[in-house]
Amino acid sequence: MLLVQQNWHAMDSAEALTTLDSNPQGLSQSEIIDRLDKYGPNQLAQPEPTSAILRFLSQYNDPLNYLLIGAALVALAIHPEQPGDAIFIFLVLTANAVFGFWQEGQAEQAMDALKQMSISNCVTIRDGYESEIPTDSLVPGDIVKLEEGLNVPADIRLLEVYQCRVDESALTGESEPITKRVNPLDPNTLLADRRNMMYMGTTVSTGRAIGLVVETGMQTQLGHIASDISEAVTPKTPLELKLESLGRFLGFIALIVAVLLVSIKMILAIGGDRSLWEVAVDQFIVAIAIFVAIVPEGLPIILVITLALGMRNMARHKAIIRRMKAVETLGSTTVICSDKTGTLTKNEMTVRQLHTVESLYDVSGDGFSPKGTLINDGQELSDQDMSSLQSDQSFRLLAACLSLCHNSQISKVEGRWSAIGDPTDSACAVLGWKLNGHIGKFAQRHPRIHEFFFNTDRKRMSVIHEYEGERWVFVKGAAGGFVPITSHRFKEGKIVPIEKPDFENAQKVNESMGSKSMRVIALAARKLEPEEDIEDIEVVESGLIFLGLVGIMDPPRPEVRDAIKICQDAGIKVKMITGDHHLTAAAIGKELAINTGAESPVSGEELRQMSDEDLSSSVESSIFSRVTPDQKMRIVASLQEKGEIVAMTGDGVNDAPALSGANIGIAMGIAGTDVAKDAADMVLQDDNFANIVHAIEEGRKIYQNIR
Asked: Catalytic annotation on 339?
């Protein structure tokens, strides 16, 4: 029995609890048992694994193979004393099947190595008591507690939130964490804008929350996507279509030859010594011999060897091919549709620009790696230039603010830099590392005394540290809220009152960064006097010295722009299909030269109102923003209807249906979710988008060789 789908986001907390016959103290044990029996475990339906035997037999599933098998059987039946041709054909087909089976098995082993399986638990309130249970034991009506770093185990209507932000990029494509609230929303609110809901497959970035489980298993949004994947039909590859055509053509020729031979000989044999039946049998044997001669018995094994060599060459470029015939599809690709977050970008927020009141710098480096420096007029600052900046008190305070005013952990794990904590915090911390050295060691030298946590009303956080022998408060937050709390700035090494032109200049920088789809964060600080109460937030956050602004975004991967240019020069159209915001999509598209004209991105809302005929013309656009998983599938299908061979690249759950429905689906191996990797035909082990170019080049070589 399943729950009737409800607009949980449109209900207030009390109504949601009543609808599920639950309460803040949680369900009783008897209710839990009943609901587990009624709704089943909280897990996605797993497709039945294909047995090794069926996987082996599937290698024979080809019209050309059917013709060869038929020819071998007929030849063997008519001339059992001369089995040479039949044995040769069967040996070739068996060798072909064994080789294909082995190659695809190797790909699956590599896929298994990429997956990290773990048993997940969550904290629930049942019978008024907290307990930790396996997530598959959750039922609708359960009360769960979530905190920073935990995966959301089901679809949840929030009851209480405490400065909670959730990373929904895998589900919606939104690159920034979403601040959660509990207020009911309009029934027509889009999935990506439902601030009072959490969904299975997302992650709590900061804060904590208590929520009501409203959907489990296949009834969750993730479950609906899983259903779409199972219903998606992977198109046949160009090679499969050509082989089918060849098989039909050869079969037709063989039939015509047989009919003509038999007919002519039977006509000539009328009135002769032999019976018409004997003549017909003899000529049929001749026709079979001609057919066996016509059919290229060695073609299947040649194709398999060619494709297998292609798979091996692609593996050298960290590309795992899961379906052998997909190798050739890459060479026929005419359109690449790509997700943005985590595919064209790293899904790692990074400071791109730094405004220090008197100067504006670009920042080199990408992601969470602390490798990078400041850039002025296109030139990276030298060590001497950086030392000169460090001698300036204003710059030292700015660097200290970046290094101390956060709660993130930046570390290198298995050769890859990663961050734990809020993405904005992490981006600022990485810049602090670039300017100040190891942030952990810096924090040890300047211990924290007190903290005022970020909240959605103040939109800032403040920390008090021992700094240069005194107590200093460092403040970081949304730029718009800093005007009332800042009163001074540095000028020529001295602290002076801030004036209206200073605010106007900062506002221009703010608007410039915002126009590039950057999130703008302001920085400020001041020394606290001994008599000031460090627990009085209004006292602490007043009379601050404005230090500067940072512009943060999830930037494109370093290799992507050149890779896209190579594809475009080769006649392959590249399109961005993202769930992220309109301005963000436009900014990334411009930076990557995906959208070379003045066209505006097509939004998901516009797609929703389009008929299939309207979509057929709009699908020529280069950028699509705020789209849902089913709209991604619709775009791919529309392109295929126009005769395009579509490659889809992505990493998130929301990309999986389109990955499955495209002519070839390409998933990221590191950043990609297991759902995306399972739906893909090819997996990039190192997440390097440029390897798609290498794969296409290899595919084109194979395509030419096969022709």
From this structure: yes
